[in-house]
Amino acid sequence: MKKTIAAALTLIALTTGATFAQRGYQYPNNNRAPQYGGPSYDQRDEIQEEIKIDRIDAIVGLSRRQEKQLHKIEDNYDRMQATSRMTPAAFRQLQLRKRQDMLAVLTSAQRDRLFAAQQQQQQYGRRPNGPYGRRG
User: Fold this and answer.
1) Distance (Å, rounded) from C-alpha 39 to C-alpha 120?
2) CA gap 133, 19 in Å, rounded
3) How many helices (H) and strands (E) does the chain have?
4) pLDDT tens digits, residue range 54-76?
5) How far is Cα 105 from Cα 68, in angstroms, rounded to an integer?
6) What is the pTM of this model?
7) Largest Cα span, the chain
């Protein structure tokens, strides 16, 4: 009798464990980072582009036409990056062409203001109040 009860309990324990082990997971990709080209990646990329263009606008004062052209350039190069696999050298070359195209939209006075702001950021380590946050 004891052996039968022990065998039945062992059988129940083993079958219960086996059924839990075989249960499927509802969301197998839920713990992964968003894939390139997915909806959340596109939204994040779009927000970053907006921030970059807004920073350029704050520095040089873009016209509405220039903003539209910059957005068009960003979208065009994003499409190029999404549709082709590139080597690191080709990616750098693409980024360089993108930068040149974006600078071509600016007037010479705007370019000078942008370069001056970039030089100032490099000189002070991107701190708005000078080195180490000191004023004056």
Assistant:
1) 36
2) 62
3) 5, 0
4) 888 888 888 899 999 998 998 88
5) 10
6) 0.56
7) 97
- Give whole-number Cα distances, 85 to 79, 88, 91, in Å: 12, 10, 9
- Please report, for residues 1, 5, 6, 17, 22, the alpha-carbon distance to residue 11 in angstroms, rounded to integers and kept in the order given: 15, 10, 9, 10, 17
Q: What's the one-letter identity of residue 132?
A: Y
Burial of 49-62, coded b for 16+ CB within 10 Å and e otherwise, reads beeebeebeeebeb
Secondary structure, 3-state, 64-75: HHHHHHHHHHHH
Tokens at 23, concatenated: 């249960």
Residue 129 and residue 135 in contact, taking contact as beta carbons nearer than 8 Å: yes
Length of the chain: 136
- Residue 76 CA to residue 5 CA, distance in Å, equals 72
Beta strand segments in 62-123, E? none
Tokens of 47: 């927000």
State the residue for tokens 């990329």. Answer: 45
**How many whole angstroms from its chain centre is CA 1?**
67
